[in-house]
Amino acid sequence: MKFFASIGQYIMLLWRVFSLPQKWKIFRRQVVNEMYSLGIMSTPIVAIVSFFVGAVIAIQTALNLAGLPAYVVGFATRESLILEFCSTMIALILAGKVGSSIASQIGSMRISEQIDALELMGVNAASYLILPKIIGLVLLVPFITIFSITLGIFGGYVGILVTDFIGGNNFIEGIQMNFMPYYVAYSIIKSMVFAFIITSVSAYWGYNVKRGSLEVGKNSTRAVVMSSISILVFNLVLTELLL
Amino acid sequence: MITARHIVKSFNGKVIINDISATFEEGKTNLIIGQSGSGKTVLLKCLVGLYDADSGEVWFRDVEYNALSTKEKRLARQQIGMLFQGGALFDFATVEENVMFPLQMFTGMTRQEQRARANVCLKRVNLVNANKCMPSEISGGMQKRVAIARAIALNPKYLFCDEPNSGLDPKTSILIDALIKEITEEYNITTIINTHDMNSVMEIGDNVMFIHNGRKWWEGSRHDILSSDNRELNEFVFANNLAKKARGLM
Ligand SMILES: Nc1ncnc2c1ncn2[C@@H]1O[C@H](COP(=O)(O)OP(=O)(O)OP(=O)(O)O)[C@@H](O)[C@H]1O
Ligand SMILES: [Mg+2]
Fold first, then answer.
1. Which end of chain A is less crowded, N or C, counting CB atoms within 10 A of the terminal residue's CB?
2. Contact A121 B106 (CB under 8 A)
């Protein structure tokens, strides 16, 4: 019951968020700022994780080849990175990093009455605070996904070169085999949906803090948990729809 | 002028504001006094529309606030300045940007004009040389003053102050009180101030309303307050020894 009430509140919040910005000039500046603080600032962690996971996938596939041709390693690494890792896993990492920061930022603005102050000036606080975050991350996340795919494949290549189970040129051959551009599109679409989920769900939990800094902490944990669960559910739905 | 009629507000079944009606006059400093926890902030937020009262009406001149659409409310709010109990400065912006914020959102002013106006307001509250600081870098009293500067930036018709001088030293308190009174009279603003500071009451209390247990318990001016025989009011007013001495009770 409470669950459905939350969904209703979430939708009502989104309704207020998606109204035209009151000042376009300010809005544009905010979006650029959010792209930087939510997106660009997340690239180091994305880079590190992608590189190492790419390497591990490649090495494990190479170890378990069981007589399959060597190019399978490159092929399998590429496919798992594009199809699953670089959208879903990266989204889960972003949910932890970006989600908790959005929720605690908005939550503390709520308890220090900054949101009331905005509303009282006649600003649509929900839209002013949340819309730039949603738009910023959704627009930037395709680049993060491509960046992650690139680094993952590079990591796989380095892993293969270091361990020497198969030849580097076998890996390169596998990487280029049967490439389906649609899969990249699929990955990007997924990551954009996930970016929307992360920003909007976390903003919802932050915005719904009532009083007290304890609740800010609680709600930012909830923000991470709920956006992660939603990501997993929508991953399933989108896979059914798109593939 | 603001008129409140039969305002009731409860939280989780507990009645906080119990049927309060009042008139707040233009060009006057209207004070709401009462103990901590008596519901002053809640009442102020009901008046200003941040809380929806369970029942009752709030009229700004001849407009009933709750009858307005969301869009009309937003427009109406540009005539309201409010000073929150904690200052509520935007922590993402510098002192100067905080004061410029309403100008940026609601006027066609150029950046230079906004900055000039912000500096006028900051000077008004005696705060110079802090323009580039972030709110977290300045003291509580300075934050209060920035908040006042921000509240008066758009020349509001209505000014709401929630404990404007709590946390300030006596000298700054007097300065802030005088400032609020001055702009109230100068621009004929309807000003409503929450306070539990008797000093402010005696200095600037044109109209004073005392709330107790969520009800309007007493109403009058600062001239009547010392001679009232309302027991709860007296307990509040003469809570400290200095006041008792002043009345010859000690
Ligand atoms: N959002 C809320 N939810 C539940 N209870 C609330 C809420 N806001 C205020 N209250 C309750 O209403 C009562 C009055 O609170 P209020 O903040 O108005 O007091 P106050 O008179 O402003 O006190 P102070 O002088 O300390 O600021 C308190 O008992 C408080 O617990
Ligand atoms: Mg209060």
1. N
2. yes
